[in-house]
Amino acid sequence: MKKMNKANNTLKEIAEILVASKSVLLFPHTHMDGDALGSSAALCAALRKLGKQAYILIEDEIAAFLKFLDKDFCTSDLEIISQPDVCLCMDCGDVSRFQKREEKFLSGKQKGCLDHHTTTVPFADFNYIDSTAAATGEIVYDLLQELPVELDKEIGSALFAAITTDTGNFQYSNTTGKTHQIAADLWDRGVDYNEVSVELYQNNRLEKLLLQTRILQGLHVFAGGQAAICGFTEEMLRETGGLRDEAEGVVEIMRNIAGVELAIFVKEVSSQECKVSMRSKKYVDVAAIGQKLGGGGHVRAAGCTVKEGYEKTIQVMMGLAEEQLKGQI
Amino acid sequence: MKKMNKANNTLKEIAEILVASKSVLLFPHTHMDGDALGSSAALCAALRKLGKQAYILIEDEIAAFLKFLDKDFCTSDLEIISQPDVCLCMDCGDVSRFQKREEKFLSGKQKGCLDHHTTTVPFADFNYIDSTAAATGEIVYDLLQELPVELDKEIGSALFAAITTDTGNFQYSNTTGKTHQIAADLWDRGVDYNEVSVELYQNNRLEKLLLQTRILQGLHVFAGGQAAICGFTEEMLRETGGLRDEAEGVVEIMRNIAGVELAIFVKEVSSQECKVSMRSKKYVDVAAIGQKLGGGGHVRAAGCTVKEGYEKTIQVMMGLAEEQLKGQI
């Protein structure tokens, strides 16, 4: 059932390269999610247990809910290892996803890539790209079976974080029986699911909840119940103390309303500019709407920038939504 | 590691009783959650495949997000089976949790109980109470191993719904390695996790979102940020069109606030009665608070009834919360 790319190396070959190395730098993509950082943290811990000099090289902030994963693994010091034996691209398949670190990545004596994204094609000296893996964490789990290191609670907890976040807690369509088999094995290795989950999901800032509640007070359902729109103004951010990133998830909440096909989320940037995120449930091509305004994205998740104030942007987007739902674009 | 109650029967014994029976009535608790209905639906489907006359006898409405589980299993007709061979108490351990059906339950030639709640003590003719099980769905899964019936996609999907809802999608502390082993096995039996998940979580009524937003506008954080409380009045239900069951999840949203250890949710039943749900994050024993008021449940999830109006109940619970947090109960 595995859709392996022909140019993939085996995990055994990759394990041998890592065992033979002295220093390894790991490169997760920018805007690290749980899988990018969790899979990197697990592998970094394992490599250190093997006596390697290993770091996760990053270029942006670690999101608050993921900070527990960084046990002195992460650094933004490009010279932490001057001439790394191995540079590994983690959970992404393109150096454009870490532009500030691209040169450093290319300086590795050997460059590798571990990823599960469907769009990734092998580009490094060695690669393991498996789009049937629910998370890069699953690939690291398999790789660890080939390494002479014990998969202990610390490593396992990072893998659980990677897997549970990237599968929407075992609910997304990428989740398979293997995902659960790995989770069961991690339990036997001492992982406390709830302990990881509390770190990931139970440390939401109160201000985030206040912001999301304030945003949803402005929810507007239109087009006969097929579309929903809401957003935040800068005033709402001030009023609630919430941060811009803390509105994440609201667009999915709208999409999850029964009957809603198209969800539109508007973020005021200034009195003359708003950013817009869109999601669709089954059939509307939101990338087409985004392209109308110079944006883009995927068929079910896209965005654009509107050079208007908040209220006007709401009107513009409602108009475009009505048009799209009528099949007029 | 299993904390079996001494008076438990074996699942083999229970399977033999069911195989020897001709008719079985299942009694989930009122205000059915995913586990009560999911575990009952799975067992009902299995019993019918064994040629039994089997129904789930209910006395209240099925929540919208759970309706897909009822494949003509549920009835509120007390005379659907006039003299049932077996009556089974599902996911609860006390006939007081189905008062309108108590007499019918007691009319069963043999009465049994399958439950995983810590406060349940064996009271029926035969019992299987395992507080280490994450869900009654896990117990039904084990019971099915003893029954001469194939655990197919239909049965497995109901079990997945039971397990995923009762474990907060595999995040609560009741989740164990076994929970994931079961989920992995259900995959092999054809269960599509995402299909079940879309039914459970992506068909939310708009009125539910309006109700939850209205409820969260009344959020109150107290005890130095360690506790949070909110709830709904009957007026909020009328105003938003939301149903009582659609407030589910708000107590977890409160618990997930950073620093909040104890979350309390108050549901107005009448001007003289409220139902209260509680969740704790790490150390507060909410069952102990519940028991103070004649309720009960688990250490991290419990409930009780307060014979007061909404505002007074909020006050009572805030007082108990402050006491418990000071270690005074």
UniProtKB/TrEMBL annotation, chains A, B:
Gene3D superfamilies reported for this sequence: 3.10.310.30, inorganic pyrophosphatase (n-terminal core)
Residue ranges of the TM segments: none
Annotated SUPFAM superfamilies: DHH phosphoesterases (SSF64182)
Domain DHHA1 per the UniProt entry, residue ranges: 244-316
MF term (GO), any: nucleic acid binding
Residue span, DDH domain: 24-163
This protein's name: Bifunctional oligoribonuclease/PAP phosphatase NrnA
